[in-house]
Amino acid sequence: MVSRMAVTQAIRAETTGDEQMDLLIFAALMPETQLAVLQEADTNKFIVDFVRGLKAAGVTAAAGSTAAAEPTHLPSTGFASAVGHPSILITSLAAYSMITYDIFGPTSLHVLQPVDQAFHHAVQASIDPELRRHLFGEVLSNWWIMAGSLGWIFTTATALSRYNPLAWQACALGWALWIFGVGPIEHDPALMEFLKTTFDRVRPSPVRRTPSFPSGHSAAAVLVVGALLFVLLPVVYGRRPAAGGRDAAAQGGGPDGAGGDNGGLGTVGGGAAGSHHPVLQAFYSVQGSWSLWALSALTTMLGRVGFDAHWLSDTLAGTALSVALVSGLANATERLSAAASSSSPSSSSGRAGL
């Protein structure tokens, strides 16, 4: 039997506008006996045509008092991300604060200073200047930022092409962090400019004359990749469909916008109706990947230290700062999703009474 949530996902994939809303409300009230007719192998179009036929025949009226007794609202499952847990936000902010105090605190032990110096001397002694400039300065420092930026642009374009209010809100918050926080733009955004100007730390070598702390490249890479993996992709494209026909909404998407659309790349659904589009499958495979996020951070840190443009502690601080920003973005998106979910019953009831 196809789950009720799978039916709503099929409706969202095949319909738009007022018809979509009407069918979603109808599906929320469908008797279980009618759901039992549908099989996991049925396509989205078959499911939607089936629901249309039931609605035209007034099947819910035949369900009697059982259907009438059920609450008139759409099923919804909110967005949730592990990185949005308050402990991650607090820990990353604490790490940034400790690094900052160790470097600039008048009474600190300056534990990181000898480590910074050791890495600086090793780079100067063992890496050819041309290799530093091309491999470390151009490739390793920028690869993840460029790849993540393309992901942001593609994902945002997909969000804007569909009716997905939560995705719109998440993208807007993300771009605000990009533009005003630590995003990769020609000049440092407001937050990064403020921090660098305030601390005014000299770089390990005169590659650039701007202040060194914290590392803008490290902060940008962690923000761009982390927000993409843990917030934007799950919200815009939904979660990977679970085995056994469970639909993507059960893992974080739903009709209130939390990953309830696939951006036209395929059908997000369960079983045989699941999407096999290679791009969508790639998006599913990297969502919430801590290892990929860590790899992007370490690669960028290596690039900045190997280029001798930053002290190691600069990159550690930039990384910690952006982990906190990504955690805050995920937490804010969770709250927006929860607010949308809590308002769904009342809005759906009002629609049903028209």
TrEMBL record:
Keywords tagged on the record: Membrane, Transmembrane, Transmembrane helix
Region (Disordered): 246-266
Listed Gly residues bias regions: 251-266
Molecular function, one GO term: sphingosine-1-phosphate phosphatase activity
Transmembrane segments: 143-160, 167-185, 218-237
Name assigned to this protein: Uncharacterized protein
Record organism: Volvox carteri f. nagariensis
